[in-house]
Amino acid sequence: MTELKKGKYLFGTVKVGERGQIVIPKEARDKFDIKPGDSLMILGDERKGIKIVKAEIMRDYALKILEDTDDTVQDKK
Description:
- The longest helix is centred in the last third of the chain and has 22 residues, at 55-76.
- The chain has helices at 26-31, 55-76; strands at residues 2-5, 8-10, 40-45, 49-54.
- The N and C termini lie far apart (52 Å).
- The protein is of the alpha+beta class and 77 residues long.
- The protein is built from two helices and four strands.
């Protein structure tokens, strides 16, 4: 694992298997607390590439957005 700058890491390279699977390097799993059974969300941008995010983080973010929306709707009433 190489820290490129504060909070930005290079964990090395992985190969895609015949079934499209990759192995997340142990250092990355440890750094981001990824454990067996965790759900991960795969996001993609045609220019920037692929990002892997723990599903619970995106769930928490979605709930925050929805809570903010509820406040906005109530303010308009």
